[in-house]
């Protein structure tokens, strides 16, 4: 097995202008540093056109898994640093090719040289190394336009660098470049996908989760935290803000007509999310609503609910079909957890027949019968904030506690 010594990272959708570009590269370097922070031997060198990650012995296989989840990376290539002799170039090129070449594949050699004093020029190297590989690998074919493998040789001042893989990153923008926002995270399928898509556009999110003890269990809360931990793989850390919601739900159920339970609950959720956003310096609110999916997600419902704020409410999965959302949920690893049946606060107080076309003036009128400010203040006073990191365990611990009680 080849021991890769560095990784060359190419940037994604980069706005080419000065300050934005600097911000993009600076954030990306910070985010890469965060996801690799348990490898202290690694050095990260962000440059104008690409980033070099010097491994210093760290295993590429593990680094590879992490880089696949960093937004802002278009492609990357693992490379080996070798001494500047023809013999070393040929020997290592052959080793690299033997690892990636499969019967029938085509290849080409592509040499770049920043050390112009090196004894061979790029053409000579292309031809000599190509010939050497032909002599040592059966049925190898050259192809200049669309080769399956490109063997890149870079002759720099300090050494020669070889690579023959181009790995695709997730693209998007580095988390943080678009500013901060609040994400409304339930335990369902849609809001984790919406979270992923928000982060992909560079938004630094904090989760707001409404829970209703004693009507909801500790497991439902643990599930939302567990989902957050999976999503933290894409940014390193996410703050999880738990908001007690039982008093609000009880009050609405006791005092207002059943047809408007859902609409008024959602109005409270959005008002609370907006308070938290303002406190924490966020610019927008994201949620997992999809047009027409359920009663609270008709356009009429959105009008009656969105009324409580002028803050932008962004709905990344608004126009996606459920099957498309599920596909993404599977890809990002949240689906299996999302379908676990721990009911959150909405399912418990869901009226049997919520209005699919609530009226805005009615919603306002009913809500005004309640002590809105008092309810909101008490919920705000009960907030709990937990920083959550990748691969933390919440749900297993919870299941264990429950078993201990038996
Ligand atoms: P999801 O699959 O994300 O739960 P859903 O299809 O079940 O979505 P709803 O339950 O109607 O839809 O919720 C719509 C959106 O409202 C959610 O995607 C989420 O953004 C927000 N939301 C719902 N319940 C909660 C909650 N308990 N805490 C925080 N946000 C919530
Ligand atoms: Mg839900």
Automatic annotation (TrEMBL):
Provide the primary localization.
Answer: cytoplasm
Limits of the THUMP domain:
61-166
The Enzyme Commission number assigned here is 2.8.1.4
PROSITE patterns recorded for this chain?
Answer: THUMP (PS51165)
| Annotated compartments | Cytoplasm
Question: Mind listing the UniProt keywords for this protein, alphabetically?
Answer: ATP-binding, Cytoplasm, Nucleotide-binding, RNA-binding, Thiamine biosynthesis, Transferase, tRNA-binding
Gene Ontology BP terms: thiamine biosynthetic process; thiamine diphosphate biosynthetic process; thiazole biosynthetic process; tRNA 4-thiouridine biosynthesis
Q: Where along this sequence does the record place binding of ATP?
A: 184-185, 209-210, 266, 288, 297
| Reactions performed catalytically | [ThiI sulfur-carrier protein]-S-sulfanyl-L-cysteine + a uridine in tRNA + 2 reduced [2Fe-2S]-[ferredoxin] + ATP + H(+) = [ThiI sulfur-carrier protein]-L-cysteine + a 4-thiouridine in tRNA + 2 oxidized [2Fe-2S]-[ferredoxin] + AMP + diphosphate; [ThiS sulfur-carrier protein]-C-terminal Gly-Gly-AMP + S-sulfanyl-L-cysteinyl-[cysteine desulfurase] + AH2 = [ThiS sulfur-carrier protein]-C-terminal-Gly-aminoethanethioate + L-cysteinyl-[cysteine desulfurase] + A + AMP + 2 H(+)
User: Which superkingdom is the protein from?
Assistant: Bacteria
User: Which molecular function term from Gene Ontology is one that the record holds?
Assistant: ATP binding
Query: Gene3D superfamilies attached here?
Result: 3.30.2130.30, HUPs (3.40.50.620)
Please report which protein family the annotation says this sequence is part of.
Belongs to the ThiI family.
- Annotated protein name in UniProt: Probable tRNA sulfurtransferase
What is the primary gene name for this protein? Answer: thiI
